[in-house]
Amino acid sequence: MKKIRIAVLCSGGGTNLQALLNAGEAGLIPDGEIVLVVADSPSAHALVRAERQGVKRAVFDKKKLPRAEREEKIAALLKEEGIGLVVLAGFMTVLSASFVRKFPGRIVNIHPALIPSFCGMGMYGLHVHEAVLARGVKVTGATVHYVTEECDGGPIIAQRAVEVREGDTPETLQKRVMREAEWVIFPEAVEQVCKKLKGD
Ligand code: GRF
Known about the structure:
Elements: E1 4-10, H1 15-25, E2 32-39, H2 45-52, E3 56-59, H3 67-80, E4 85-88, H4 97-102, E5 107-111, H5 126-135, E6 139-146, E7 156-163, H6 170-199
Parallel strand pairs: 1-2, 1-4, 2-3, 4-5
Antiparallel strand pairs: 5-6, 6-7
């Protein structure tokens, strides 16, 4: 059976995209193939990473297109490209219920904390790590989950814990969570979901 065609949606640096591309190249995602990278900003470094790897790119600029129109165009492109799995890798827009309903069980996201802690509206980027340090928890981590209509509320696919260290800043913690958890569990979870989708 054919590989699941994957689109990765990004807004920024794209280190998680890079982890997925590397895993794909290393043969660690045998049931899926990254065929499209979508960004909501033309300056997203993720686009450079995609270009380097020869992956098709598309930009739907947040500053130029209102959300509903942007989502409509993204959904149309995903359908046109025969995308079977939508991967949110640092995509900074919360997708509407109507978008999510178009791809049931076929959208996954990575969150830089152990859901259900430090998640939901407003919990993105460094805010998450700031909140972790402010609360003083000793363990944080990352979560890969299905995207449903409820923000960060979908079924959990994978999690990995990361130690919070004395003297951590939001920045040092963010880096450790990425290195020790996000870049490790994301490719594994994407392969797991592709395998499952192929079997459906
Ligand atoms: C990551 O921390 C991810 O968990 C969150 O946004 C960040 C994106 O980083 N959803 P990058 O663009 O993958 O480097």
